[in-house]
Amino acid sequence: MGGARFRAIMVSKVETGQEAKLTDLSTDDLMDGDVVVGVSHSTVNYKDGLALTGKAPVVRRWPMIPGIDFAGVVEASADTRWQPGDRVLLNGYGLGETHFGGYAQKARVKGEWLVPIPSNLGAAEAMAIGTAGYTAMLAVLALEAHAVLPVSGPVLVTGAAGGVGSVAIALLSRLGYRVIAATGRRNEEAYLKELGAAEIIDRAELSGDVRPLAKERWSGAIDSVGSRTLANVLAGTAYGGTVAACGLAQGLDLPGSVAPFILRGVTLAGIDSVMAPMPRRLKAWERLATDLDLGKLAAMTRTIPLAGVLDAAPEILAGQVRGRLVVDVTA
Ligand code: NDP
Questions:
Q1: For ligand 1, atom 11, which residue shows the shortest CA distance?
Q2: Residue 96: which of 51, 129, 135, 128 has the closest Cα?
Q3: Please, which residues have CB within 8 angstroms of residue 267's CB and are 6 or more apart in sequence?
Q4: What confidence score (pLDDT) does residue 49 get?
Q5: What does each C-alpha distance from 314 to 46, 61, 91, 310, 319 come to in angstroms?
Q6: DSSP class of residue 307?
Q7: Tens digit of pLDDT for each residue in 49-61?
Q8: How many CB atoms sit inside 10 A of residue 212's CB?
């Protein structure tokens, strides 16, 4: 029992379902891995909200330290790729689902999961981007790969005031795209324009009944909402356009038709951040380091202490969190 002690949030099964609470652990309690990281920051993503509340079966090993991402400094490494003092981040690979996650002051993980923090970013900035921002970049890369370029026409971002949405708007506008932002929070119009949205539409326009085809309004889209919204987004996509689908804030279903695919040659590009291959991760982080306006990143970010994630979880599921929530796990 000689391991160093540290604070963590742990979710456990109880008779009534599950319970998340702040606890004190030792490095001896950590799971297997070849690199020990002193974690300084994590974040609250939508999926963290699901894991902390148990609203969806994100946690698949009990008890679990949730937190699907972290940033910190290597303290010890049996992996030759990493040395003590290296600044690293981690997204996905089952972190916070099957492997102890980011809501802890220490983590022991596989060296092959780690990504170096880009040299121009601090650990807090890396987590202001976090899984949501890295996913937004994966979606931008998908649009580019399908030749949706600034000259192609406007790009729609749904779930605009959320984490993925906010970073997507900042990235796309910096790259020269005309961004249409769909939001249910009309009071956030000034915020969304500040991030770079040229036009704001009410999400109610997209969340209702689905028509097979609608007026062609955007050449591409980044959708974090799914369900009827994604079906309507596809129906409104211009000939040859691409929609990058990464989320399910409205629902997991997709109640649309094949009309956009077979009559307009529209592409539906799936985005997964968890098991994305390492070269794509490195590319995404390299592009985030150069293409994201750090002033805008700061404007969309709020920092909370470790214990604050317990209150933040239901808030993010209720769509009440604007932009990104960084967790200072040392506080
Ligand atoms: P947020 O909660 O920050 O953003 C989601 C946004 O969606 C909300 O802010 C809100 O935007 C909108 N929204 C919420 N509920 C509804 C609804 N019922 N109908 C329509 N719009 C709604 O979450 P994140 O940005 O962290 O994640 C967004 C989605 O992307 C989640 O579903 C998440 O699971 C998914 N995701 C997937 C990843 C992957 O690997 N594929 C990785 C990261 C995230 P507004 O108020 O502006 O309308």
A1: 159
A2: 51
A3: 146, 241, 242, 243, 261
A4: 97
A5: 9, 21, 22, 8, 9
A6: G
A7: 999 999 999 999 9
A8: 13
d(CA 313, CA 238): 37
User: If you take atom 44 of ligand 1, which residue's CA is the nearest one?
Assistant: 132
Cα separation, 81 vs 216, in Å, equals 49
Q: Which two tokens stand for residue 185?
A: 């929070």
Give the three-class secondary structure for 130.
helix
Q: Is 203 in the pocket of ligand 1 (CB under 6 A)?
A: yes
- Under the phi-then-psi rule, with left for phi > 0, alpha for psi from -120 to 50, and beta for the rest, what region is 305? beta
From the CA of 98, how far away is ligand 1's center (Å)?
A: 22
> Whole-model pTM?
0.97
For the Cβ of 207 lying below 6 angstroms from any atom of ligand 1, the answer is: yes
Q: Provide the 10 A C-beta neighbour count for residue 50.
A: 20
With beta carbons less than 8 A apart as the criterion, state whether 207 and 185 touch.
Answer: no
- The structural domains of the chain, ordered by start, are 5-117+300-328 (3.90.180.10), 130-270 (3.40.50.720)
CA distance 118 to 89: 9
Token pair recorded at residue 142 = 């998908």
Helix (H) or strand (E) holding 268: strand 267-270
**Residue-wise pLDDT tens digits, 254-281:** 999 999 999 999 999 999 999 999 999 9
**Ligand 1 contacts CB of residue 49 (under 6 A):** no
Residue 301, ligand 1, Cβ within 6 A: no
How far apart are alpha carbons 54 and 36 in whole angstroms?
28
